[in-house]
Specification:
elongated
Length: 199
């Protein structure tokens, strides 16, 4: 008889739960997520399975929680960038810092595995990226109208961003050709992009 864990009440997730779940990300950079069991996750988190089942029902729920927590932290970019645009004092390093924080401890291989094995967690990332591109488009338009950026087509800028982001996510072989980390590549891209945009 299988465990009917889905019927049990779950404890409210605390900051400590967030810490020990996010702490497994560096250990999953080259791991086939499809092969992971709850026993494997418990070992990686250094928790007993019974402790994990107090908070999570399934592996899918664990990866959804990890993904949503990281995305929630990333959403701080909206307020920071909006304030800088209003003051016409934009620094590309703000966006680069926030995005590199989101990419910390994550590899392209991990993201591909997430898309393949945990589509509900991947959908959280997709929705975030769609929202990010929409926000960036408005940001470019505001920056151009406010005289902060050169008058370059916002549609072109967004297409470049979309291509860059999807290339990083989908082409895990890129990292076989460079010693750079995901974080440093994002920072380099932002530098090139916004140094070229700034008047």
């Amino acid at each position: 008889m299988g465990r009917k864990s889905i019927l049990r009440n779950r404890k409210e997730k605390s900051k400590k739960v967030e810490q020990w779940t996010l702490a497994i990300l560096p250990k999953l950079k080259t791991t086939n997520l499809g092969n992971l069991t709850m026993d494997d996750l418990a070992l990686l988190m250094k928790k007993s399975k019974s402790t994990i089942y107090q908070y999570f029902t399934t592996k899918e729920e664990i990866f959804e929680y990890i993904t949503q927590t990281r995305i929630d932290n990333l959403n701080t970019y909206k307020d920071e960038i909006a304030m800088e645009v209003l003051q016409l004092n934009y620094n590309y390093e703000t966006l680069a810092r926030i995005l590199t924080e989101g990419a910390k401890d994550i590899s392209s291989f991990y993201l591909r595995q997430l898309e393949l094995h945990y589509p509900t967690a991947w959908k959280i990332i997709e929705d975030f990226l769609f929202g990010l591109l929409e926000d960036l488009k408005q940001f470019y338009i505001s920056g151009i109208e406010g005289g902060l950026f050169k008058p370059i087509s916002p549609e072109l800028l967004i297409k470049l961003d979309e291509y860059f982001i999807m290339q990083l996510i989908m082409d895990d072989t890129f990292f076989n050709k460079t010693q750079k980390t995901l974080e440093s590549i994002i920072k380099d891209y932002m530098f090139l992009k916004f140094e070229g945009l700034m008047k």
